[in-house]
Amino acid sequence: MAELLTRSNLVVPSSRPALSPSRRGSSSPTGVSSLRVRNLGSSASSDMNGRKLVVGGGLSTSPRGFAQASGAQMSLVLGKALKWWQKGLQQNMKEVESAQDLVDSLLAAGDKLVIVDFLSPGCGGCKALHPKICQFAEQNPDVLFLQVNYEEHKSMCYSLNVHVLPFFRFYRGAQGRVCSFSCTNATIKKFRDALAKHNTDRCSLGPVKGLEESELLALAGNRDLSFTYTPKTAPTSPEEVPAIAPRPVLLPSIQRSTQESEEKTLVAAGR
């Protein structure tokens, strides 16, 4: 009977309950078919009108159960697809997408401390340090961490004079860049000390500075970057123009007397 059901095209609806132990001896075709489908497990499939019924081991065949299983598998795939620099990111960590994005993020941070992390997927020191940076970000939610992927933004890093990795730059309000350095897990104390020093409560006097003027000009002059910058113009208002002392105007009589005195001095010196 089992051999006959295997070759047949019967499809057993998933909603039909399985036989109880007391009915296993029944010769009913329905009962035998249910037993056969249960024994096949996850490899059982039946064709009918071009459709297949696959019974997964322990998985529900209802639409809701199938959606839940698909969602779990999709989450698993996405989790495996994450790169090492994308894992463990906190809400205050952001990946920089362009030079304009970097400039805008620094200006929008206000008085917040901003740490720019320059990293590369092929940098072993960057990979080893990444979990520690994520931990610092979690412990300091008021600090903004910006990630710059060197492999994706080589030209921008060149304009910013970044030539060693991992590399960090700290920015704060009107002060602009307050420090920059390279460190690894062995020298992580340098990062910890800088974070403690520049993350103190303070109020900047003046507008947010962000990048240096020379860095902005370098980014604007880089043909590989779609970044424009207008240099600061000279002051035009009367209040901003520095006062220039007027040169004294000598009257003709004073000019003659001055010239005569100079001639007498030259004669006395024997010239």
UniProtKB/TrEMBL annotation:
Region described as Disordered: 1-48
Tell me which Gene Ontology terms the entry assigns under biological process.
cell redox homeostasis
UniProt biased composition (Low complexity): 10-37
Residues spanning the signal sequence: none
**Which Gene3D superfamilies does this entry report, sorted A to Z?**
Glutaredoxin
UniProt GO cellular component terms:
chloroplast
What InterPro entries does this protein's entry cite?
Answer: Thioredoxin-like_sf (IPR036249), Thioredoxin_domain (IPR013766)
Pfam families on file? Thioredoxin
List the keywords (alphabetical): Disulfide bond, Electron transport, Redox-active center, Transport
Residues in Thioredoxin domain copies? 63-200
Q: Which domain of life is it from?
A: Eukaryota
**Transmembrane spans:** none
Family as reported in the entry's similarity comment: Belongs to the thioredoxin family.
**Name of this chain's protein:** Thioredoxin domain-containing protein
